[in-house]
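To illustrate the input format used throughout this study, we show a single complete record. The first block contains the structure-token representation of the backbone; no residue identities are included at this stage. The design step must infer an amino acid for every position from geometry alone.
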């Protein structure tokens, strides 16, 4: 859980992370909403689909260009620009859905990482089951990637704080699992375990 949380409002934002799938592909919330209208969630639904929504409002679905495979690391990013144009990339390749216009005002704070408040959740649960996440960064006020780009350059170094970073979790070791390198969030761990290596 994070406090105060993430609320991009109606402006540009970028959410990106490295995610390793489990031995079978499960759904789960990368960033999850609170029990509050228009609170943002960014969710991996299955091996072929991700979506973003505001609690109680419409979802925007993005089909992956290729199916995610078990036990594999993926760079996943979503970016919305100042014109509300938005898309998702997996390993630098844009969703086959292309660019959509997301005009939701995500006005209330999302507070979950690998968790969301939900009455309906992917596979009946908002948390992953065996997946691993590292280098989770949320930037509000800036689209780090142009939604009109079919391909983006996947970062090869650990993510870092850039202007407008509101969350950066690197998960370098067990002691840093609750350290937000941006200095903006207080992180409370409710059961996540640090795992080293691949």
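Output of the design step:
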């Amino acid at each position: 859980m994070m406090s105060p949380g993430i609320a991009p409002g109606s402006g540009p934002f970028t959410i990106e992370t490295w995610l390793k799938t489990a031995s079978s592909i499960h759904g789960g919330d990368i960033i999850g909403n609170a029990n509050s209208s228009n609170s943002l969630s960014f969710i991996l639904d299955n091996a072929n689909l991700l979506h973003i929504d505001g609690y109680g409002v419409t979802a925007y679905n993005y089909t992956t260009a290729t199916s995610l495979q078990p036990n594999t690391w993926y760079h996943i990013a979503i970016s919305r620009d100042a014109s509300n144009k938005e898309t998702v990339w997996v390993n630098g390749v844009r969703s086959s859905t292309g660019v959509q216009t997301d005009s939701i005002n995500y006005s209330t704070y999302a507070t979950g990482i690998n968790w969301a408040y939900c009455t309906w959740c992917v596979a009946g649960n908002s948390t992953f089951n065996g997946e691993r996440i590292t280098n989770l960064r949320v930037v509000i006020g800036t689209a780090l990637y142009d939604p009109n780009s079919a391909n983006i350059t996947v970062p090869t170094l650990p993510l870092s704080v850039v202007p407008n970073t509101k969350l950066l979790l690197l998960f370098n070791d067990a002691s840093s699992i609750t350290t937000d390198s941006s200095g903006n969030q207080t992180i409370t761990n409710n059961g996540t375990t640090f795992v080293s290596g691949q």
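Structural context for interpreting the output: The two ends are 25 Å apart (CA to CA). The first strand starts at residue 2 and ends at 3.
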